[in-house]
Specification:
390 residues, alpha+beta, six-stranded mixed sheet
Length: 390
């Protein structure tokens, strides 16, 4: 009997160790993300949309309960039909969130001559937090509408939620024990959360990164909810990466850097934060710029002071690193593209720190954040590259 109990206890211990193994590291614990897609449910015409309180425009779908919880959602469709699409999600408290319009024209993307592939009939994704049901409305019918979901928080099912909570608890305990032994390195480079820390091992690039030049910085927003916690922000970056790669069919996340409202800077596209990595963030100018995306939507609310300070530190380090000053203006050569404001081959003058809408036909980075770009320029100032910088 005693031997049986001992074997049973040993088996339980081994099982717990195997369950906890992914969290037994000082590296941040990142749950394995999950992507899934569903055909969009049929949408009813305008009269039903009014009855459903969806704004009375076009067509509205019945609520669709998803087989798993999700954190981010976007849509894609067949053909080149342009339509206004909005989505709302039902969170885990059973409450419907507000309707959120999706950006449904290509916003950013690879340069036209790039070998990097991609779809054009896709929306920008939106971060919804923790949700299990979704509804959409559309101004006119589109063919083959699909919903693409990403769960990047390890919460798809009750079992996964329990597993993730256990592993996060073990990891937090290990970090707390090790904290007195660690020290922060000082340097001119601002603190940048590396790809490994937000889970990029689960969003590997399709191909090798390409290098270009960095002559300017374009400011973006991700057009997702601003209602995220500090702990959720890395998962939001991972979810955007998965969507860009798996739904848009880009090589990797489009942005070179992402900044959250708390002032944390995240490494974006792979290739090295100190390299002139070509992103998919400002169509026509990707090989001549770096792209900094602000996590959230800043059409009607401004970005936080912490985020503005973080972008200031990042630009003051990044541009001089590549041999250019941070102030004044520079000329970029347009590579063309469907969303580009300027035709291929034109030499266009930009401020070294510009909003995405300065280059492409887009509302990015939102009206309020675009209004903060002049203040950002003043904060950045005119830092010169170090002597001898190529």
């Amino acid at each position: 009997m005693k031997r049986t109990l001992a074997l049973l206890a040993a088996g339980v211990l081994v099982g717990l160790l195997m369950l906890a193994r992914p969290a037994l590291s000082l590296e941040p614990y990142v749950a394995a993300p999950v992507d899934f897609e569903l055909d969009a449910p049929a949408a009813a015409p305008e009269s039903a949309a009014r009855a459903a309180g969806a704004g009375g425009a076009g067509f509205v779908s019945e609520p669709l309960q998803t087989p798993k919880r999700f954190n981010l959602v976007g849509v894609r469709w067949s053909g080149d039909t342009e339509a206004a699409i909005a989505i709302r999600a039902r969170d885990t408290d059973g409450r419907w969130q507000s309707w959120t319009p999706l950006v449904t024209h290509p916003d950013g993307g690879p340069d036209p001559a790039s070998a990097e592939g991609g779809r054009t009939s896709v929306s920008q994704p939106i971060w919804v937090g923790e949700a299990y049901s979704v509804q959409y409305r559309v101004s006119k019918p589109v063919r083959g509408l699909k919903l693409h979901f990403v769960n990047s928080m390890g919460t798809t099912t009750p079992g996964k939620r329990l597993q993730t909570a256990l592993r996060r608890g073990i990891h937090s305990a290990l970090v707390a024990l090790a904290r007195p032994l660690s020290a922060n390195a000082a340097g001119r480079q601002p603190r940048i959360v590396p790809r490994a820390a937000w889970g990029a091992a689960n969003c590997r690039p399709r191909g090798r990164p390409e290098n270009g030049q960095v002559k300017a910085a374009f400011v973006h927003h991700t057009v997702s909810t601003n209602n995220y916690s500090r702990a959720q922000a890395p998962a939001a970056v991972l979810a955007i990466c998965r969507y860009h790669r798996n739904s848009n069919r880009w090589d990797d996340i489009g942005y070179n850097f992402v900044v959250d409202k708390y002032g944390t800077i995240y490494e974006g596209r792979a290739g090295g934060v100190d390299r002139p990595v070509v992103g998919a963030q400002a169509q026509g100018y990707n090989d001549q710029s770096t792209g900094i995306a602000n996590l959230g939507t800043f059409s009607s609310v401004p970005q936080s002071r912490a985020a503005i300070r973080a972008m200031t530190r990042l630009i003051r380090w990044k541009l001089p690193l590549h041999g250019v000053q941070t102030g004044g203006r520079t000329q970029l050569v347009s590579r063309g593209g469907t969303t580009n404001r300027y035709s291929k081959g034109m030499r266009v003058t930009f401020s070294r720190v510009s909003g995405h809408r300065d280059a492409d036909r887009t509302a990015c980075p939102g009206t309020r954040l675009f209004g903060q770009v002049p203040r950002l320029r003043r904060s950045v100032g005119n830092v010169q590259p170090a002597p001898g910088t190529p």
